[in-house]
Amino acid sequence: MNNKYSLICAISLLLAHPLALADTSASVSANVAASSNYFWRGITQSDDGATVSGGLDYDSGKGFYLGAWASNVDFGDTASTSYELDLYAGFSGEFKQLSYDLGYIHYAYPDAAGDIDFGELFASVGWQYFTVKLSHLTTAQSDSSTEEDMLYLELNAAFAVFSESELGLHLGRSSGDTVMEWTGEDDSYMDYGVSLSTGGLTLGLVKTDLDADDDIKAYVSYALDFTL
């Protein structure tokens, strides 16, 4: 059984089994969102079109968590798939003044004509307003011509501004042979982002230094979270 279906089974069993929520510290939450565009590391995943997404999360209350998230996607002629399903699990917590998060995420495209799924291990450390995160490709599509090499390093910052609003800043760098295969350009590129969020509404700007996608792009999104 591959990683994708192992994680699906784990999520289904934990969320369905009464013992999973026997501990009062455990919780299950859901989220839904609509956005004018879906960006992943600075690159549109919806051909600059609107998306609707939703997710389900289980938090043990003791650090361990797992969940699933789905959104419509549009890769044009690159791949014939209509939606993305992300499955993830990890462990997060705090040590003195530092927060940390270690986990695995699998990006699945169930209705794709070929196998374009891939997975990543990630680790992040946060301090006050800042978070540094490193993601490393562990599995790529079976027909990949590369050595499945991709590394993503990002720095994020969040500051409270105005009344109950948050200013987000993002800087990321993708590198590796897989980056060249996906973008058709160099084996590395930078992406930048800034956003302002309040009450579930987010306005943002995104840019990369890729020749084919170097314009500043704007998006607006609205998200709702629910405790189940």
Description:
With 228 residues, this protein is mainly beta. It has a single domain (27-227), classed as monomeric porin ompg (Porin, Beta Barrel), CATH 2.40.160. The chain has helices at 3-16, 177-183; strands at residues 27-35, 39-40, 43-44, 51-59, 64-72, 83-95, 98-108, 118-127, 130-139, 151-161, 165-175, 188-198, 201-208, 217-227. The strands form two sheets. The protein has a twelve-stranded antiparallel β-barrel with strand order 1-4-5-6-7-8-9-10-11-12-13-14. Strands 2-3 form a two-stranded antiparallel ribbon. A hairpin with a 2-residue loop joins strand 12 (188-198) and strand 13. It is globular. It starts with a helix and ends with a strand. 17% of the residues are buried. The mean pLDDT is 89. It comes from Pseudoalteromonas rubra. This is Histidine kinase. InterPro entries: CHP02001.
Number of domains: 1
Termini separation: 30 Å
> Compute the gyration radius: what is it?
18 Å
Q: Find the count of extended strands (DSSP E, 2+ residues).
A: 14
The helix/strand class is mainly beta
Q: H/E order of the elements?
A: HEEEEEEEEEEEHEEE
At the first level of CATH, what is the class? Mainly Beta
For the sheet with most strands, the description reads: 12 strands, antiparallel, barrel
As a percent range, the share of strand residues is over 45%
CATH superfamily: monomeric porin ompg
Level-2 CATH architecture: Beta Barrel
Outline the low-pLDDT stretches: none
Q: Helical residue percent?
A: under 10%
Coarse shape: globular
CATH-defined topology: Porin
Mean pLDDT: 89
Query: Strands of the biggest beta sheet: in what spatial order?
Result: 1-4-5-6-7-8-9-10-11-12-13-14
Put simply, the count of helices is 2
InterPro entries: CHP02001
Organism: Pseudoalteromonas rubra
Protein name: Histidine kinase
Pfam families: Gcw_chp
